[in-house]
Amino acid sequence: MNLVETKGILLFSKDHKEKDKLVKIFTESAGKQMFYVKGAHRKNNPLAPALLSYTEATYMGTIKTEGLSFLNNAKDIHPFRTIQSDIFIAGYATYLLNLADSAIDDRVYDPHLYQFLHEALQLMDQENDAEIITNIFEIQILHRFGITPNWTHCAICGKTDGRFDYSSKYSGILCEQHWGMDERRYHADSRAIHFIRLFSQISYEQIASIKLKPETKAAIRRVIDLLYDEYVGIHLKSKKFIDQMGQWQDVLKPKNQ
Question: Which segments constitute the DNA replication/recombination mediator RecO N-terminal domain (predicted)?
Fold first, then answer.
């Protein structure tokens, strides 16, 4: 049992009994931890602001090597207010939180994934393109699921420029001259492969220069969905939610947007 003070991002919370909560926090110093919060629903509980969805804070508590840990206090509470107030951005943010939760085991120290998630949420909160941020996150954490596609060059000849498609057979891209080597290649839009190759190595700071048409975004989504269905095999409710958002977002968004 260790007393700790660590930065953390709230992954999810759920009610426990009448007044208590179980909260899962991705901590910077001790990985993902499940905490028991006694009296979480008590009026004027000082922990309440740190237990809201889409919040980062410095959490203080007791971490156990087995079973539930206990949360005692929090400071430097930073709510991602734009995410909290926009159901569409929140949809993407929830999906990223769920992906991060799925990508590593509990109690695994992973400050790099923590920082990567923090940056993604921060950029979403600043109203950068949530779809592009999500795509970058999805592609760059594939290796945490044991998947390392070759995006840099044709798997047959090593060519690095031109039109490409993805081949499961070769675990990477094929240039147009070698598409015939795999009849079951993805038959993807070459623009989608171009941007996914870019997303595999880009830093978040560069996203401001990327403007994509809706049809290009849809083509990218198709390829990433194929990759996740084939290699990762997780089915998150939050992913289903963002898939359905396009059907009703025009109805819910204010008329001036």
Answer: 1-80
- The distance in angstroms from the start CA to the end CA of the chain is 51
The neighbour count for residue 203, using CB atoms within 10 Å, is 9
- Whether residues 32 and 50 fall in one domain: yes
- The helix (run of H) or strand (run of E) holding residue 16 is strand 2-16
Q: Among 253, 189, 257, 178, which Cα is nearest to 223's?
A: 189
pTM of the model: 0.92
Token reading at 234: 């997780």
pLDDT score for 115:
97
Category of 155 on φ-ψ map: left (φ > 0), alpha (ψ -120 to 50) or beta = alpha
- Looking up tokens 């899962």 gives 24
Tell which wins on pLDDT, 214 or 248: 214
The band of 195, judged by pLDDT with boundaries at 50, 70 and 90, is very high
Verify that 44 and 84 share a domain, yes or no.
Answer: no
